[in-house]
Amino acid sequence: MFHYIKNRLYQLIPILLGITLLCFAIMYTATGDAIDVMEANQGVVYTEATKAQMRSELGLDKPFIIQYGLWLKNILSGDMGNSFVSGQPVFSTFMSKLPATILLTFSSIICTIIISIPLGIFSAINKNNIFDYIIRCCSFVGNSIPGFFLSLLLIYIFSLKLNLFPVINNSININSLILPTMTLTIAMSAKYTRQVRIIVLDELTKEYVLAARSRGIKESVILYKSVLKVCMLSFITLLSLSIGSLLGGTAIIESIFLWDGVGKMAVDAIIMRDYPIILAYVIWMSIIYVFINLFTDILYHYLDPRIRLSSKD
How is this protein positioned relative to the membrane (predicted)? Predict the structure, then answer.
């Protein structure tokens, strides 16, 4: 197992380097350099001599590959630079937004699991009856509604009409958490309910299920002792991708609800062309996705003996 994890980690290093290089190249070729952006954001006017001095201090007068090397060296030493807008260290700014995103991710994933797995199983074991049609119809509608429209719809119903939750979130609390969690949960539950249904239906046709039925084993025992264990592998893969995107911050949802997480921070940084913040966000997204995929591979390797046996060949 240790050898497997070590090899996977070695494979992730060039992926992370490639992502950071590509993102840095995009920032480098953008219209206007960092000094021009700082001048516009701070509302001051620098002389050409001052601009030249600042470019020299930041290394912006050096070739692209040297700039990237200096930036990568600073990143590896823990220095992400300062924001062009606020002037605050990027790392501390990013870390101040991260707890809100983690809280929203945790609440959305828990609600999605609670809703989608039971509904998917119930729909599968009641295939083609009225309950199955209702669940499939609701999941189709939930999966089709755009996130921004669903957000506005929930705000209109629960905030404006019923006056249950605040329209604008001034702080991170339970009341402000409910609506963005509902928005993300509805969309993810609709998708995962259909996926769980399909996976369970596929497993119920396998030979080991038919053999268990022929031996007189109860249907509930077959379902919960055998079928669900196999289905969880596929469900974990699907869920891990959602965890990665949620930890990266759902930019549209966080912006609509003014949820002060990394997604909203990234949107604000893109609008203000705050390049250090954007680069920090890209690094975070890259790390999240590669390590979520690594964790999923390790979990597969542990749960599925076929993968362990093939890796030894």
Answer: Multi-pass membrane protein
Model's pTM, two decimal places?
Answer: 0.75
Q: What is the pLDDT of residues 171-197, one digit of tens each?
A: 777 888 888 888 888 888 888 888 888
Close Cβ partners of 282 (under 8 Å, ≥ 6 residues apart): 19, 20, 23
Neighbours of 178 (CB within 10 A): 15
Tokens 């807008």 belong to residue? 85
- Helices (H) and strands (E) counted in the chain, each on its own, are 15, 0
DSSP 158: I
Report the distance separating Cα 249 and Cα 107, nearest Å.
13
Question: Residue 280 and residue 81: Cα distance in Å, rounded?
Answer: 9
Q: For the chain, which domains are there?
A: 2-76 (no CATH), 93-312 (1.10.3720.10)
**Position of tokens 């350099």?**
33
| Residues 41-82: tens digit of each pLDDT | 666 777 777 777 777 776 667 777 887 888 888 887 777 777
